[in-house]
Amino acid sequence: MDLDDALETFILESRELLEDMETALLAIESADDKTEMINAIFRAGHTIKGSAGLFSLDHVVAFTHVVESVLDKVRSGKIALADKLVVLLLACGDHIGALVDSVAAGEHSGNAELQAQGEPLLVMLRDYLDPPKAAPDPAKVAHNLPTADTEQVQRINGNTANTANADHWHISVRFSPDVLRNGMDPLSFIRYLNTMGQIVGIATVTDALPNAEQMDPELCYLGFEMAFQTDAEKAAIEKVFEFVRDDSRLVILPPHSRISEYISLINLQQGDAARLGDMLVRCGTLMPQELDMALDVQSDEPGKPIGTILVEQGSVQPEVVEAALTKQK
Amino acid sequence: MSETNILRIEGELTIFRAMELKPILLAMPPVDVIDLSGVTDLDTAGVQLLMLAKETALAAQRDVKLVAHSPAVIEVFELLNVAAYFGDHLVMDSRTASGAARS
């Protein structure tokens, strides 16, 4: 899928979602069960924001983020969906529609007129939001990274619980070399993940960067290993990468995955596997002891295809292998 | 010895200028210092180019120092946690090590 196709999909999808949102807003007053409609309204705002983020349409993200924050409070019952708010949300839907139309017309950064139209809506939306809470202190989050839990280490060494101690997701991604040419920047995906949760550790993998002569400055050579703290479901994390999924190598490991799954990830890295192992330690996904154990297991069975090991151990979530191995064919 | 060759990059350091900037970053005589104070926008393509400049210099027993990082650069370096990548190389640079030994 190239940029034009992907962007066109975004525009069509956004317009459909906005129609759904308007239909739900108009019907909600007389509806007996408002839950489904509120969910549809929220979904529209949430999805448009997410997709816009992937295309670096920052002005669309900025506006829909505020709408989504209000909708989130409606969904959780903290704000009632009174007439006044319905009218405001209808106006917001129209404004998002105008933003999408301007993107369709080739204006990827909006324009002053649209911005001026959005301002009064934002002021009214913010009235519904509490004063912003302080963001979690990154230093504190870092301190919550796995520490040497003696009991856990012993159990790992005793081979009775072969799971990682860390309670965050691990996302390993190697984008298609063409991702930049297709108009998408890996940084947008990483920034967007930070709106769904928090990247508590990240290692940028530079191994694929060739020498000066061979390096094509328009191709993407960097890979990313990320420790990601979130309450989101796996499907939601996968959706972030929807537009690049076909061409990328993406591995998403849930919290407390089996050590064998980290081994498979390390083995996917071409070249120096130990270096990738170190990166998993650096971003806090594995403890040093866990890495040692992973590499020990690997050296016990040299040359054995990792797929075989994983199937034998019966420890793999099928979608993980599928995602990981598709690109290897 | 020749004097320090400083390259100041103005504006975007992104995919849109990657083709133009690669030869400038790798030009001879080699760049010793890259001044990033005028960088308004940095993307993955830009980060890669800075890495390429660094790796190329190190491979030739030289170094490239990044200085005066603009806010746009700092934001991306923090997002990707690559400050240490450029910093580690500075620490490992042989001239720095020998300089320290002499003092």
Question: How are the elements arranged and paired?
Answer:
The complex is a heterodimer of chains A (329) and B (103).
Chain A: H1 3-27, H2 35-54, H3 58-75, H4 83-104, H5 112-126, H6 138-143, H7 150-157, E1 169-174, H8 186-196, E2 198-205, E3 223-229, H9 234-240, E4 249-253, H10 259-268, H11 273-282, H12 288-300, H13 306-313, H14 318-326
Helix pairs in contact in A: 1-2, 1-4, 2-3, 3-4, 3-5, 4-5, 10-11, 10-12, 10-13
Chain B: E1 6-13, H1 18-25, E2 33-42, H2 44-59, E3 65-67, H3 71-80, H4 83-92, H5 94-102
Parallel strand pairs in B: 1-2, 2-3
Helix pairs in contact in B: 1-2
Please characterize this protein's 3D structure.
The complex is a heterodimer of chains A (329) and B (103). Chain A is α+β, with helices and mostly antiparallel strands and 329 residues long. Chain A contains 14 helices and 4 strands. Chain A has 2 domains: 3-126, Up-down Bundle (Four Helix Bundle (Hemerythrin (Met), subunit A)), CATH 1.20.120.160; 139-326, no CATH class. Chain A has helices spanning 3-27, 35-54, 58-75, 83-104, 112-126, 138-143, 150-157, 186-196, 234-240, 259-268, 273-282, 288-300, 306-313, 318-326, and strands spanning 169-174, 198-205, 223-229, 249-253. In chain A, α2 (35-54) packs antiparallel against α3 and α3 (58-75) packs antiparallel against α4. Residues 132-160 and 304-329 of chain A have low confidence and may be disordered. Chain B is α/β, with parallel strands linked by helices. Chain B has a single domain (6-97), classed as STAS domain (Transcription Regulator spoIIAA). Chain B is 51% helix and 20% strand. Chain B contains 5 helices and 3 strands. In chain B, β2, α2 and β3 (65-67) form a beta-alpha-beta unit. In chain B, α1 (18-25) packs parallel to α2. The model of chain B is unreliable at 88-103 (pLDDT under 50).
List keywords for this structure.
heterodimer; A: 329 residues; alpha+beta; Four Helix Bundle (Hemerythrin (Met), subunit A); 2 domains; globular; B: 103 residues; alpha/beta; Transcription Regulator spoIIAA; three-stranded parallel beta sheet; 5 helices
